[in-house]
Amino acid sequence: MKKFFVALLLFAASIQFAQGVEWIKDNYTKKEYKIQMRDGVKLFTSVYTPKDTSKTYPIIVVRTPYTVAPYGEDKFPANLGPNEELARAGYIFAYQDVRGQFMSEGKYDNMRAFITNKKSPAEFDESTDAYDTIDWLVKNAKHNNGNVGIWGISYPGFYAAMSLLNSHPALKAVSPQAPIADWFVGDDMHHNGILALSMAFNFLSNFDFQKDSLITDWPSGPQYDSPDMYNFFLNLGSVANANKKYLHGKYKFWNAVTEHGTYDEFWKVRSNLPHFNNIKPAVLIVGGWYDSEDLYGPLNIYQSIEKKNTTNNTHLVMGPWSHGGWARTDGASFGDIKYPESTSATYNKNIITPFFNYYLRGSGNLELPEAITYRTGSHEWINYDEWPPANSENKTLYLAPNQKLNWNKPLDEKNDFEEYLSDPNKPVPYTAKFYDSQQAYLRTYMNEDQRFAYSRPDVLSFSTEALENDVVIAGPITANLFVSTTGTDAKYFQCSRRC
Hints:
By secondary structure, the chain is an alpha/beta fold. It has 2 domains: about 280 residues, Rossmann fold; about 80 residues, alpha-amino acid ester hydrolase ( Helical cap domain), CATH 1.10.3020.10. About 25% of the residues lie in helices and about 20% in strands. The protein is built from 13 helices and 19 strands. A 10-stranded mixed β-sheet has the order 2-3-5-4-6-7-10-11-14-15, with helices on both faces. The chain is globular and about 75 Å long.
């Protein structure tokens, strides 16, 4: 017996396809370069080239703020590229510290804004840094075939997406994976404008460092006793106390996050969604249905490209993964859910590998549908000619008396309501599990048994009658709530689940 219910809550990687260091050292040569950008700033870039110099190879680039370590031409990583098959097929892999990070010169700027109308040849943004990097690589990297691809997960996914803007002619294929689109509306720092406190605090307290020289190691973040996450942030009190107790005003972007509590110009200029015009490379956007960090980015960058480009070669892949799970796990399970296959292996074999091989090497056949999504209820991959699906039907569920959900609009327009008492000193947790306060968040919470929450008196749960047939939900879900509160403010979370 299946039902839908909606709960309203009031809330106060290791890579699996390791090739191995010794194999990479035996098969690739490493060189390190400082590539000059149009304004004179030099960006540190590690380039790995196959030792077999009898043929030419495409270039695959990753631009990252997270370090291209290990540094040194005699030091090699355990992995190259999106997966083992591409590394063994033979590509030139280039990894770059983005402007202002680690061994690259310049000043770092989180979600650096795209400059639509540049006023001088030396004016730069992330799109020009990508362009200048590609231009240097195709002219200077030995044994390249002139075709370049870019990919990256999360923040590197953002940099991959930015390479699409005014792209270099040699850039043939781009795969932004879990890319950031807007840090206020839906990605990472905020969800619909609500500050994701534990995620923002833990990420920025380690990432948002200010460097005054070139470095090869991560600086240490603030040191403090670490109780469980629930009690740590409950005891923190006001967000302003984060600076008073732990950060001491040293973290520039954290300060900006707390100072810009509305969708003002600071956030608007950092959104890349208005700028995906005249997209020329083939694009493969990848995301996870259980990604609590960057689910907004993949879906909305895809929609932006579709709306702004009458002709484009863009595909969307959405699987049963958390943040980067297609590259960091085997995808055979998520939390307590087991799948009948390794969804990550399916993705790597049938989607990302053929994508780059086809557009960069000119090899194989590629018959990707417009969108490929994993239907978590029936455990199967579904292909679509467009997204959201063309044959979908918009349906509305209505809150009804006695905490019911009805498919039909109530005939009686009287103001029925449900109410509850919320105590800010006892906020509803998002997980029943103990979790360390210095971890960003529990990634598997999205499919966790929710009885710990909806059994509380300060959570409202609405349920349908037993469903007679399966119901497939595809596309966006929007909740329209009409509420009043005796407090000064409130945050409402809606959770839709099958039971």
